[in-house]
Amino acid sequence: MAQIVGYVGTSHVPSIGNAIARNLQEDAYWKPFFDGFPEARKWVDKVRPDVIVLFYNDHGLNFFLDKMPTFAVGAAPRYANADEGWGLPNFGSYRGYPELSWHIIEQLVEDEFDPVSCQEMVVDHAFAIPLKLLWPEGTGDIRVVPIAINTVQHPLPSARRCLKLGQSVGRAIASWPEHLNVLVMGTGGLSHQLDGQRAGFINRTFDEICLNKLVAEPEALTGYTTTELVDLAGTQGVEVLNWIAARGALDGHIREVHRNYHVPISNTAAALLVLENQV
Amino acid sequence: MAATQRQTIPGTTIFDGEQAAKGYALNRMCYSFNDAANRKAFLSDEDAYCARYGLSKEQRAAIGHRNVLELIAAGGNIYYLAKFAGLFGLSVQDVGAQQTGMTVEEFKAKLAQAGR
After folding, report:
1. How many independent structural domains does chain A possess?
2. Per the CB < 8 Å rule, is B33 touching A235?
3. Catalytic residue at A125?
4. Complete domains list, chain B, with CATH
5. Chain B within 8 Å of A200 (Cβ-Cβ)?
6. Can you give the pLDDT at residue A1?
């Protein structure tokens, strides 16, 4: 049976991609952010995941507003990164795992979710940058299942719904018959707001609450309405929904391996959280 | 909660169905900038390109003004507007400074302050 070895939550700010391409890891502005990752890489190298299930939001690459799914699950043999229009380097492509994707989709529908299934899917910076941060040389043979959550066009799924989505994905993984080590990831956030007169909004206190609750008590985050999340985390800080969803998949004893928090990276409070799921 | 019952947050536009409907043509044009050939076409003949996407008068004016608050008022979503800003090499700090009436340096200082 497959088992979830742990969890990585990380920001996915686009400019990280340019900083990597320009080798700015030691630059004074970037160092406090990149210094969070050697510890996380050491841990992923130790647990050696076979599969990564990654919860993220698409920013107008695979999905446009003509057809906007609340939840979408990739079921493709391969996922390529592609041009988003603002000059990021291309991060290449990733090996999929359609059989596991369909197994997850089966479980989600049985649990009364109605995901869109994607046999063709391109993945944007929110998928590619977190993987590049953890596997600078590429993910190689590790297979991936992308799960996209709408955090762009309201109404967004609630925090409670996202946690339940993750729980359903966790059940699917637990019932997979072959042995697999699975890493779940949630990307985006934490607090930031790009748009409006409130642009530049950051809320360190709320981010710390989120990180602490994600470790010990994720249910506590399900009490926030979407509007409250926008108010507390900013219009794009709602990407914390991806972190909450991914956390739902873990049901073992949780050990916090590592965290890092640094403000600002671009307009964002950048965070990293690594949890081990001890089953 | 229905959109009509949503509380308002100062300085913040919730991109909901109403905004998405209003901004559809504008966001659709910005989505097209994922393609390098389209970016080039816009830059070589902005009027013709905007006409092709059927922008409203308000949207066309806001594009001409390169004004992000006007673009949001016209239904633009920031992720799509970022693709437009990218045409001119503008970062989200440039965009943030413009919206808050600060210089870029002031806006960056405000972000750095939030980390302390």
Report:
1. 1
2. no
3. yes
4. 16-89 (1.10.700.10)
5. yes
6. 82
